[in-house]
Specification:
By secondary structure, the protein is mainly α. About 65% of the residues lie in helices and about 5% in strands. It has two domains: about 30-425, no CATH class; about 430-520, Transcription Regulator spoIIAA, CATH 3.30.750. It comes from Streptomyces antioxidans.
């Protein structure tokens, strides 16, 4: 857990921990001034991410801004976590893209709406804390799988090309993409813009003075947009529809799709991933300040309320976003007013300056998301995890691979099942203690049923997972001694083990008695 939270802390794009600082309580003008400044910083971070996530999800760019606005004005106003900021997240990009490709943009509102209602219900029933019980390896594997598919898909957007639908096709077709790019001057220019964006994202935080004034994502997008305009590069720009034109409330026909099994699976995936990512983010943000701790059930309900509103507007699903949340804390935010104000600035921008989106190159947004996808992959944690907890590392790798090979929902389910199986295996430790044991050399050939029986005590948790090992140990006991089996040391024994142990004891003692009877009949 510590590694994941530390990685979440590092995702904020800052150097060192000094920027986080303790959250000091203040009041009056000082508090408002701090929240006002922090809201501007978060707004500047949020704009390119909102637009980039929307474009990568296959929906109008304005829908990403709408989700960011709702995350500020609705979720930001509700209780739960006072400083974390919500909006569209890269973690759901792959799943949203698959849903839009399969069911259409019109059905997105229904999926998000039902997910929000489920989150509200789970929070009301006090299930928020249960999401903290999800295996960290599964969450890391989920994020790594999302990152891999996100990177693979955005490599095509980086070259102004259309990406294949499945994760495997995106990866297998990369050699063909490289060949196409090499033969196209326009594609090479688009790739150069995207690659330059990534370079700025990597290097910008090192210029501490510049990073304090302008966040890295906005600096990268601004520089790439300016270069594209000055050089008049023939590459694709973001398509602009206008805020009201982008809103698509779900109609009655879209609700009929809920009868399909695939749609329900997508809803559950939205709910599970959005809730888990939000609550893990809340735990990470709590480590960045010493202010009020998160109420997980209230935070889950706040996320549910936000997603319900987003669903009614036909917008993208939201989660708490660690990049914006960390920026909020590190900018000196004191209260929830900072995240509400960031929603206000997003609304003002979307209403007054929608045409500004039309000059942003798609390739530069792809570069932002490639960088974001890379940050989702726990490259620094994997080797230490393999050395100390190999089983957890295997779960992480398998979960990520399953997401790439199948889809988000099935990959997460496979990871959860592996985590449960691993836990069951590790908790079913059982061992055998034998007293009254004598070697066959000392007991002689005459030892039989008249000798004192071996007292065999089984301790631990006896489940069917350990039954082969347990029976192997029992089979190694001397066959000329009867056995008294003591199960009082077991904390748990399932039906399969209980029946197998009783059957083995009965057969073992029967064989010993039979062999002893045969020896008595044979003359010396």
């Amino acid at each position: 857990m510590r590694n994941l939270l530390d990685r979440f802390r590092g995702a904020g794009g800052t150097s060192g921990s000094s920027g986080a600082g303790p959250l000091r309580r203040s009041s009056g003008a000082g508090t408002f001034r701090a929240d006002f400044t922090a809201s501007l910083v978060v707004f500047l971070v949020a704009v390119p991410l909102c637009v980039g996530v929307a474009v990568a999800s296959g929906v109008p760019a304005e829908l990403g801004l709408i989700t960011g606005i709702v995350g500020g004005l609705v979720t930001g106003f509700l209780p739960g976590s006072s400083l974390q900021v919500s909006g569209p997240a890269a973690g759901l990009t792959v799943l949203v893209y698959e849903a839009v490709e399969t069911y259409g943009v019109a059905a997105l509102g229904v999926l998000v709406l039902v997910s929000g209602l489920l989150q509200l219900a789970m929070g009301a029933f006090g299930l928020g804390r249960w999401f903290r019980a999800i295996s960290v390896a599964v969450v890391q594997g989920m994020l790594a799988g999302i990152g891999l598919v996100l990177i693979a898909g955005q490599l095509y957007a980086l070259a102004d090309a259309k990406a294949p639908s499945s994760g495997l096709d995106k990866i297998f077709n990369i050699p063909g993409l490289i060949a196409d790019v090499a033969g196209s001057a326009d594609a090479l220019k688009a790739v150069a813009v995207g690659a330059g964006t990534i370079v700025v994202l990597v290097l910008w935080p090192r210029f501490r003075q510049g990073a304090k004034v302008l966040p890295a994502p906005l600096a990268a997008v601004a520089l790439a947009t300016a270069a594209t305009a000055i050089l008049d590069l023939p590459i694709a720009r973001v398509e602009v529809k206008g805020l009201l034109d982008a809103v698509q409330p779900p109609g009655g026909g879209e609700f009929q799709a809920l009868a399909e099994v695939g749609v329900l699976g997508t809803v559950l995936a939205f709910t599970l991933i959005a809730s888990a990512e939000s609550l893990f983010s809340a735990a990470a943000v709590d480590r960045l300040h010493d202010g009020p701790r998160t109420d997980y059930n209230k935070e889950l309900m706040a996320q549910g309320a936000g997603n319900t509103v987003c669903g009614l507007l036909g917008a993208l699903p939201m989660t708490a976003v660690i990049v914006r949340s960390a920026a909020n804390v590190q900018a000196g935010a004191k209260t929830k007013a900072s995240r509400v104000l960031h929603g206000v600035w997003l609304l003002v921008f979307a209403v007054l300056f929608p045409s500004a989106l039309g000059i942003i190159p798609v390739a530069t947004l792809a570069g932002v998301l490639v960088y974001s996808g890379w940050k989702l992959i726990p490259t620094k944690d994997l080797v230490p995890l393999w050395k100390t907890h190999r089983g957890e590392a295997i779960i992480l790798i398998v979960t990520a691979g399953a997401i790439v090979i199948t889809n988000m929902f099935e990959g997460v389910i496979i990871g959860l099942l592996m985590a449960v199986a691993k836990t069951a295996w590790e908790t079913s430790h059982v061992h055998v203690e034998v007293s009254g044991h004598e070697d066959d050399e000392g007991s002689g050939s005459g030892s039989g049923s008249g000798d004192q029986p071996l007292r065999v005590r089984v301790r631990g948790n006896a489940t069917f997972l350990r039954l082969p090992k347990l029976l192997d140990e029992l089979e190694g006991l001397p066959r000329k001694r009867e056995v008294e089996l003591d199960l009082t040391g077991l904390r748990h024994v399932d039906h399969a083990c209980e029946m197998a142990l009783a059957t083995w004891t009965e057969r073992h003692n029967a064989v010993v008695k039979r062999d002893a009877a045969l020896e008595e009949r044979i003359p010396a």
